[in-house]
Amino acid sequence: MIVFANSAFTDTTGYAADEVVGRNCRFLQGPGSDEDTVQAIREALTAGDAFSGVLLNYRKSGEAFWNELSIAPLTDDEGSVTAYISVQRDVTASVRAESRTRDLLADAEAQRETLSALLSITRTLAGQTSTSTVLRAVAEAIIALCKADRSSIAMWDSAAERLSMVEVAGWHGPLDDKIRAFTLSPSDSPELAGIVAMREPVLVTRSSSSDWGKAILEDYQITSFAAVPVETGNTLIGVLIANWAETPGPPRLEPDLRARLAGLAGITATAIRTAGLIDQVSWSATHDPLTGLANRELLETELSEALTQIPSQAGLAVIFCDLDGFKRTNDSYGHAVGDRVLQEIAARLTAVLRVGDLVARVGGDEFVILLTPVQSESEINAVLRRLRHALDAPVQAGDVTVRARLSTGVAHHRAQSPRPTAAALIQAADADMYQRKNGRQTPRPLAPRPDQELLQSALATAVQRRQIVAHYQPQLDLRTGRVVAVEALARWNHPELGILDPGQFIPLAEASGLIHDIGRHMLQTACRAVIEARRSLPELTMSVNVSRRELASPAYARTLDDILARCGLPASALTLEITESHLASDPELLREQAHALRDYGTRIAVDDFGAGYTSIPLLQNIPITELKIDRAFVQRAPTPGRDLVAGIIALAHELHLSVVAEGVETSAQLAHLRTIGCDRAQGYAIGPPLPHDEFLQLIAAPS
Ligand code: C2E
Ligand code: CA
Ligand code: CA
């Protein structure tokens, strides 16, 4: 009989102290409490001994928990027992983890096979980039992994408290239709109620199941099924089910089957989460978050496609639109009103289009409309009229009323004329608009550029003349706040033009092949610098940019080997940065090269990640160690529910990559990156690229 219970007891069990005082502890037990353990406690207490062990108990709410008990007798002077002290601890979380490990270790051979089977499924799933293809692959995997005949996957709707089938495999005829339509709520099925409450797998056979279970076996013509919950964190997201019919099913949930089911459930949860992120990332990469319209990239893709698929008698047209006076609206009423206006205009533009046409937002107040197909000029004119009328009514944004006017320009591509590129057609529409707006023929002025030919010939001797130098920009570890890495950035100390940025000479060097010399020189300079810097910061790593041409050259690995050997720098202290779009352009060759470099021990970063979304699925085949998120993404403020950078970070972490945010300019960006789990940051907020000596001073100074 309980005489006293402390607040930890009442917190754990949910009972108030006055509800338990005077009662026997048995009320904590329930259907899942192990009878042998209960008996052992009883025997220990009767004999006046101490007891310690773990028992499944139930809270007042009915929820089960694993209770670690140590019970010790208190005796009086004569040695007779007067009371027991029971110290209890809720160990549910660790019991679950441990039972999984124990199950997995039970049989080394089975474990090896199971792990390799799970690993191969992980690989298959890693290649799936949408939720639906993940589910398809999991349904197949259940059958293979559990040696079952059929499978089904149900998703859990926590609001409605219902399971609904989303994918099945191995079913035939009318049963296939029937199982796909299956839904279930826990109140109908004790087995399901058990899964929802305990998050443990169950096996339903003719000899061990509720009436509900027996009816299901009968209805679906199966002999047994096993079901395992799929969770992310602590949230139930669904159930995987293996069904046996022709093949004899397992008599019990043996450790190996349990491990296979639990392993598969874990992989599935990860794959679904990743696929969801990819869905989101790919949408965001092709759409304007403010208006939901297509962005320029999607427009160019669609336009290029339309240009190749145009019917022989038809043409297409591109309309460039610019909102007159929008800047004034923004300046006088603020961005919130400006945003509302853009959203309203986007909706109206969309409404006037024909099925199959596309409207994209390509700049602050610039929209491009793609009309396809177009048979005649008059069709285009009809759309232009409708566009003008669409803006007749003023736009209401909060209590502000704004009148909007569109300037438009058209480029009409006729079927028989030579095929232009998408970019050229858009530019022609832009130029047409510019001319109509200004009533002049002058094209937009271009910024003056240094003479390219002169630069090119000067560049040829720049390395020899020691004009190419490296500046170094620090990267901060966001957890420790320390500088852990540095990127070497090329600068050209031009005798007349001053210091030139890489954007002004790297493209020239790539075109002429001088990039091999410059790359070797940068690598050598950077390796020497990091050796020096590691005297103050022994763990410091150095990042060096590698251009596509260098990477494609078979001699590159040799060069790298020579330089590292000569400086005595371990390969693991070097990170080679490869731009994402390069990875996409020649995946096979670069994949091989990347493998060679990775085998060699250097780390590999994907640079400007996010700018060329195309290569996300590719990442899984390239042995990279980190992602550098392009600064355009880092600097774009997150909107609620659509934080692309957080999405990329989560995705990268699923793939075991570390993430560096580039171009971090404000302390607000820095703080946000820290909260969403970004590993490292680089940018003006931390420090600009510095010349060699200044950089060494920076890291030598105690911070
Ligand atoms: P990157 O690899 O993406 O380098 C980052 C660029 O962002 C650098 O420009 C850096 O100065 C700049 N930056 C750093 N922090 C901030 C910031 O907070 N805000 C903004 N707006 N910018 C920031 P940089 O030095 O002009 O280099 C441009 C590109 O040239 C590099 O882009 C890289 O692709 C290429 N590059 C530089 N050095 C080399 C090299 O040695 N070899 C090759 N192949 N390419 C190089
Ligand atoms: Ca870089
Ligand atoms: Ca970059």
Structure description:
The model is unreliable at 440-448 (pLDDT under 50). This protein is 45% helix and 24% strand. The protein is globular. The two termini are 62 Å apart. It has four domains: 7-90, PAS domain (Beta-Lactamase, 2-Layer Sandwich), CATH 3.30.450; 110-282, GAF domain (Beta-Lactamase); 296-447, Reverse transcriptase/Diguanylate cyclase domain (Alpha-Beta Plaits); 459-700, EAL domain (TIM Barrel, Alpha-Beta Barrel). It contains 27 helices and 25 strands. The protein has 703 residues and is of the alpha+beta class. The chain has an eight-stranded mixed barrel, surrounded by four helices. It has a six-stranded antiparallel sheet with strand order 6-5-4-9-8-7, sandwiched between helices. Strands 11-12-10-15 form a four-stranded antiparallel sheet, sandwiched between helices. The structure holds ligand C2E and calcium ion (CA) (2 copies).
